[in-house]
Amino acid sequence: MSKSDSTTRPTRPCPSQAAPMLLGFLLLAGCTTPPESPQLPRPVRVAQVGEAAVHTTAGFAGEVTARRETALAFRIAGKLEARLVEVGDRVRKGQAVARLDANDYRLATQNLKAQLAAAQAEAGFTRADLVRYRELLDQHIIAPPEFDRHQTADTAAKEKVAALEAQLAQTANQLRYSELVAERDGVIAGFSAEVGDVVAVGQPVALLAQLDEKEITLHVPEQRIAQVAPGQAVEITLWSQGERRLRGSIREVAPAADPATRTYRVKAVLLEGREQALLGMTATVWLAATAPAALAVPRSAVFTTHDDPQRPKVWLVEAGAVRSIPVTLGTPLDGERIVVEGVAPGQTVVRAGVQRLIEGQAVRVLASANDRSQP
């Protein structure tokens, strides 16, 4: 080989030298960090924390009663001889309910009838005698004082007849009062005397309930009585009818509390379903009330995390970023809102996309449809 050939031929690197160089390039390329892309704020929709009136209902247990109940009692004293109806029987006005032993009143009536007959006979005699003495007076056979004596006797006889007639009428009434009759149509709700009992004048014997109107009698505590007024619409559920709610209204509110229970008696009238409401049934009267204004947020703003699922939270938007705070949930409201505690009025919370946010993440507030529609 000539010297010129060795000078013009290119020099090739040795394989043992090329391998370290390639490895260096690869290591340099692997250690190089790619440029970071800037993180864009996540768009969110927000809502303002505001106050809302909370409408609640409270149920009070009561009993179905008749609006008008009459305690039937005898107007005379005596021994109860018979009960002519039983509890639960429907009666008509004037129908006999019970009867007393009236033998004594019957004998007194007979006695007065006999006295009256004797008095009437005596009065007839004195009247005829007075006519004869008037003729004698006109003939100047007797003196005027003698005529006056016979005239007085005739007047006394007539007044005696009138007195006995009044006594006989009174005794006849007492004989009639020995039978207790219903004052009006209704149902016998109870008996407080049995056959053989000696009852006094005016002692209640039977309870007559009218079925034309039924009402619920309940007792309301003093902290809720200010929210109850006559004429107020209520809903009534009968325990025997399940969850079916019947229309009703408040008819009466007691002006003073019961001295023993310190509750106020309230009566609600059933406006429907009177046939299903039997006397003595248990019912619940639902009274509507408005609680003081509370803070509310959209329900979609409330979320929980996997590590603490029992603790609800909301995202607050502050200085373009979000921060989660725990809240206490309250009463659900209309319009997909819910009462919460732990926030302040006027704060901004995220109401959409809450599960995609992380603590401290930058956000961009989107305008709502209402905001875009305004000029």
From TrEMBL:
Boundaries of each CusB-like beta-barrel domain copy? 217-289
In this protein, which residues make up the domain named Multidrug resistance protein MdtA-like alpha-helical hairpin? 109-178
Q: Which Gene3D superfamilies match?
A: 2.40.30.170, 2.40.420.20, 2.40.50.100, Helix hairpin bin
Looking up Pfam families in the UniProt record yields:
Beta-barrel_RND_2, HH_MFP_RND
GO molecular function terms noted in the UniProt entry: efflux transmembrane transporter activity
Q: Which family does it belong to?
A: Belongs to the membrane fusion protein (MFP) (TC 8.A.1) family.
NCBIfam families, from UniProt? RND_mfp
Q: What is this protein called?
A: RND family efflux transporter, MFP subunit
Q: Which organism is it from?
A: Methylomagnum ishizawai
